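At this stage, I wrote out one protein's amino acid sequence and its backbone structure tokens, and that material follows here:
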Amino acid sequence: MSRWNAISLPLKRRALPRRGEVDLWLTDLSELPLDVGPSGESRKEQVVKQRVQQRFILRLLLGSYLGVPGKDVIVERDEFDKPRLGGELAQTGLNFSLSHSAQWLAIALTRDRDIGVDIEHERIKRRADDLARRYFKGPDSDLIQGLDEPERSHCFLTQWTAREALVKAEGRGLARNIGRIAMDCNPTRICELPEDWPSDWQLIDPEWPSGVIGHVAVQTGQVPALNSFWLQTVRRS
């Protein structure tokens, strides 16, 4: 975690990201004492609780950048479910994207440009080779099918998060676009994008903690500066 700046609750007022910078936040929701959402132990209640926690953290974080209480942050979604600031706060130019997997929540923010983030928790992905054959095109598809576990699942999740981050940043539907993206591996690199997309996308592969795989996609002519923050209850040594 040496590359992540530890930030403890409660959050203080933060300056908006400078143009050309990306602020990336990661937190383990199981470590945060959030008494929000249902308290039951059923699977359904736990899923609802986690979603409430995610919305709470998102609004809390956005409020710290915007200088308003989290409850006053308006989040709207377009036809493809892409979240954006609503109301007068949209004039700040602050754009964001969020992703969750298991207990992990990632939020990426930037100004005046589109951004997407996608994460997955490390695990064996059943039928990773079949999924790659069905949804992927490009050199990475052939590579995944030739690997053994656990390398196959790791490679599949790496390439999946890169594609999904791009789709989320572009604001298009996943099902209709993920198969139109071709990627290379080692390192992950964009080979081909849909013809109706802009071409100036950059992929960022942060130094994630163990157990997390993911990418950030941002529309810019050059790789932006990345500021990584770890949101926690008590500052770690």
